[in-house]
Amino acid sequence: MRKFYLAVLYTGCAAWGSLAVRLGDERKLDNRFSSGTVRSNESWDGCTADQHVDTIGADVSLKGKVVLITGGDKGLGFSTAQALYARGATVVITSLSKAKGVLAAGSLGADVKAYHLDLGSLKGVRDFAEEYHKDFGEVGLDILINNAGISGNDGDFTTVDGYEGVFQVNYLGHFLLTELLMPALRNGHGRVINVASGMANMACSKADCLKDFSSLPPVEVGPDQTQYGLSKWLMIQHAAELAEREASNGVKAFSVCPGLVDTDMTRPYPSLKKSCVGPGAQSPCPYTVDQGSVITVYAALVADQPGWYRRWKQCTAGAVEMHGFTESMRPELYQKSRTWAGLLQVQSQSQSESQS
Ligand SMILES: NC(=O)c1ccc[n+]([C@@H]2O[C@H](COP(=O)([O-])OP(=O)(O)OC[C@H]3O[C@@H](n4cnc5c(N)ncnc54)[C@H](OP(=O)(O)O)[C@@H]3O)[C@@H](O)[C@H]2O)c1
After folding, report:
1. Phi/psi of residue 159, each to 5°?
2. Per-residue pLDDT averaged across 254-277, rounded?
3. Burial of 186 (0-12, 13-18, 19+ CB in 10 A)
4. Which of 13, 81, 275, 317 sits a CA distance of 20 to 30 A from 297?
5. Which residues surround ligand 1 with Cβ inside 6 Å?
6. What is the largest CA-CA distance in the chain?
7. Residues 259-296: b if buried by 16+ CB within 10 A, e if exposed
8. What SS3 class is residue 68?
9. How many other β-carbons are positioned within 10 Å of the β-carbon of residue 32?
10. pLDDT, mean of residues 55-64
11. pLDDT tens digits along 136-169
12. Quick check: 47 and 295 in contact, CB under 8 A?
């Protein structure tokens, strides 16, 4: 059963249509994203099927720009770090394992900085943000890539903060990180890129589970597909809301799906390659990391319009299932996320301290 879920999990970015047909699922895809702030960029053809990351925005210089990539020690994050370093950026990577981060940073370049960051701990995120501010001060952050992630919750992975693990590592940790780094992002008129997934379409095990907030934050340790899908769906909504809120501050936000990519995340499941077969399949499949990271680098360097960008076959895009959610609910989701991340408590605590 687990293998089935994982096979579904990695059907890539735009395979939802064919997957839905295969599963006999008649849910309608919500095309709201074509006209709303999370646009699906239907007409975008920014890359070819086998494009290599080196060729995206090759003429863009990042000299003097600071780029921070979570999960930059391996997989897609490492490939992205390599591509942006090659364009002259000051690159900062984070990883769960400090030792792996230091090793990866050394292989990228002597001036690449590595930090330990545990996205599964709110305190861990705060500690990292503090360290970052100490080291970089007021220097603007030009590109934040929320890339780190885990695929599923094998057992009962509840974080130290009491949240379901995938939700916190993939979504809430990145949400808090982005909030804490927002002053630096505003200084840099920066970009936020959330590495999401087309599996956002599988965020619900019951129809329209996001028509209200009753299933958030998730409490059940359910099938991998919904844990992962929900965390990625939230990342897409997060980028959409940020794009709107931060436009006047010069910050742009994007969400991307790299497709099915051969990494440590997918490698343990050879059956995933079954999704590479058939008329709706991604091609080539799976991508190498340097093909998969094309879309992240595209959002970092080239894309002008904030939105939802997907790497599938070429660089086409589809729509995201809304699961009963509406755009008008996004500001509330944002405020709730601030509460879940402990930001509102901290704010009201410091307000009452300053009043006393
Ligand atoms: N591969 C695909 O087919 C695919 C498809 C769609 C979307 N994505 C998304 O792409 C992103 C990168 O995935 P990948 O395939 O490159 O995976 P990967 O090779 O497994 O890399 C995952 C990264 O996340 C870090 N990480 C894991 N748990 C963490 C935690 N609690 N706190 C902080 N960092 C943590 C890891 O650090 P350590 O090395 O220290 O453990 C590692 O750097 C993920 O968000 C994934 O969901 C991947």
Report:
1. -80, 170
2. 91
3. middle
4. 275
5. 10, 71, 73-77, 95-97, 100, 117-120, 147-150, 169, 195, 197, 257-258, 260-261, 263-266
6. 66
7. bbbbbebbeebeebbebbeeebbbeebbbebbbbbbbb
8. strand
9. 17
10. 93
11. 987 889 999 999 999 987 667 899 999 999 999 9
12. yes
132: annotated active-site residue? no
Smallest Cα–Cα separation from 325: which of 263, 241, 250, 245?
241
281 CA → ligand 1 middle, Å: 23
Instruction: Give me the percent of the chain exceeding a pLDDT of 70.
Output: 80
Sign of CA dihedral 272, 277, 279, 43: positive
Cβ atoms of 195 and 145 within 8 Å: the answer is yes
Ligand 1, atom 1: nearest CA belongs to which residue? 261
Q: Residue 308: what residue type? A: W
The structural domains of the chain, with segments of one domain joined by +, span: 2-355
CB 165 within 8 A of CB 150: yes
285 is written with which tokens? 């499949």
> Per residue in 101-124, pLDDT tens?
999 999 999 999 999 999 999 999
> pLDDT tens digits for 206-260?
889 999 999 999 986 666 678 999 999 999 999 999 999 999 999 999 999 999 9
Query: For position 116, what pLDDT does the model report?
Result: 98
The yes/no answer on whether domain 2-355 falls in CATH 3.40.50.720 is: yes
The single residue of 171, 228, 287, 298 carrying the catalytic annotation is: 228
